[in-house]
């Protein structure tokens, strides 16, 4: 089953709104942190310093929010900006099997900006309602990005609950009472973004097993997800292994805990190319609750997940323009 978000054929106004919708999303990842810090510092050194102090006190008291579900808001999810966002590419979500409203982990790939993951968790979209009869989707993002950078955005409600990706956050959500808890995880880690180049589907997953252990500890089904077309949204400045640029990026990643790929899109800007993104959601892998999983159990489930992910890619690649000779490269 496929739900398609076609680009509007239409007016310059519609196209302009789509561009603005995507740019605000890019800005929220790449520029919001700097703006937030500048505003906070200007308040601290100005006459309104008391407001900054009060805000910092509140932020300290609220420090656990990113790890306890964030602030999801149905009102924000209904904003027209998300419809324009989907219309830009367009984005489609493809369901390959029935998904019951039980606890599960959607496992997707890490890119510069995960557009497919964003739409996957957009809880008021027709695609979301087609995927699963739950409104409890949570998109887990890197801790420095969410906790240390977006101070002001932490105050605001989120359309789909952007929450921390650390173990505490995921465990909290998966252990909440009731069914329908869905954690959307990008397991490749920040270094995978440095490999995101058109025509090169490279995933860092062979040694990524933390999500497997979490699935066992909570009995959460694993759902493999692959977004065809995401690597084509940007061009990345060449950074082959062994180059000075790659060495600098990896050194900064170790220091900052976030990757810094140098990429560009349309018109040489940070606007992504208007390339369709097809997010294919695979069949869930049932996982038996195992509070204290052994390393052998973790390895066995990880091997099964990798097998299902490879199978998902091979079964759908021809439909989305991937050459027959091209295969997923797992590192």
UniProtKB/TrEMBL annotation:
It is a multi-pass membrane protein. GO terms for cellular component: endoplasmic reticulum membrane. One of its GO terms (molecular function) is diacylglycerol O-acyltransferase activity. The chain crosses the membrane at residues 12-32, 39-60. Pfam families: DAGAT. One of its GO terms (biological process) is triglyceride biosynthetic process. Belongs to the diacylglycerol acyltransferase family. Its EC number is 2.3.1.-. This is Acyltransferase. It is found in: Endoplasmic reticulum membrane. InterPro entries: DAGAT (IPR007130). Keywords: Acyltransferase, Endoplasmic reticulum, Lipid biosynthesis, Lipid metabolism, Membrane, Transferase, Transmembrane, Transmembrane helix. Its main location: endoplasmic reticulum.
């Amino acid at each position: 089953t496929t739900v398609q978000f076609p680009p509007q054929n239409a007016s310059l106004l519609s196209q302009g709104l789509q561009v603005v919708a995507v740019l605000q999303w890019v800005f929220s990842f790449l520029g919001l942190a700097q703006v937030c810090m500048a505003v906070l510092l200007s308040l601290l050194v100005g006459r309104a310093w008391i407001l900054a102090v009060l805000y910092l006190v509140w932020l300290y008291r609220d420090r656990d929010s990113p790890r306890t579900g964030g602030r999801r808001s149905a009102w924000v999810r209904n904003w027209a900006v998300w419809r324009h966002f989907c219309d830009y590419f367009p984005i489609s979500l493809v369901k390959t099997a029935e998904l019951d409203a039980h606890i599960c982990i959607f496992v997707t790939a890490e890119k510069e900006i995960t557009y497919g993951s964003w739409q996957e968790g957009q809880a008021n979209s027709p695609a979301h309602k087609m995927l699963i009869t739950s409104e409890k989707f949570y998109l887990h993002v890197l801790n420095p990005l969410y906790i240390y950078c977006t101070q002001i955005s932490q105050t605001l409600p989120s359309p789909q609950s952007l929450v921390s990706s650390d173990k505490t956050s995921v465990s909290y959500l998966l252990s909440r009472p009731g069914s329908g808890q869905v954690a959307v995880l990008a397991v490749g880690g920040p270094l995978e973004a440095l490999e995101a180049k058109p025509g090169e589907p490279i995933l860092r997953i062979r040694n990524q097993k933390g999500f497997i252990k979490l699935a066992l500890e909570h009995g959460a089904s694993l759902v493999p997800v692959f977004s065809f077309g995401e690597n084509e949204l940007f061009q990345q400045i060449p950074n082959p292994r062994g180059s000075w640029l790659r060495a600098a990026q990896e050194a900064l990643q170790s220091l900052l805990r976030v990757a810094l790929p140098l990429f560009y899109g349309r018109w040489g800007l940070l606007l992504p190319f208007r390339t369709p993104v097809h997010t294919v959601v695979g069949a869930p892998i049932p996982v038996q609750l195992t509070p204290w999983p052994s390393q052998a159990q973790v390895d066995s489930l990880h091997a099964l997940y990798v097998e299902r992910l490879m199978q998902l890619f091979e079964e759908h690649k021809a439909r989305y323009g991937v050459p027959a000779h091209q295969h997923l490269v797992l590192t």
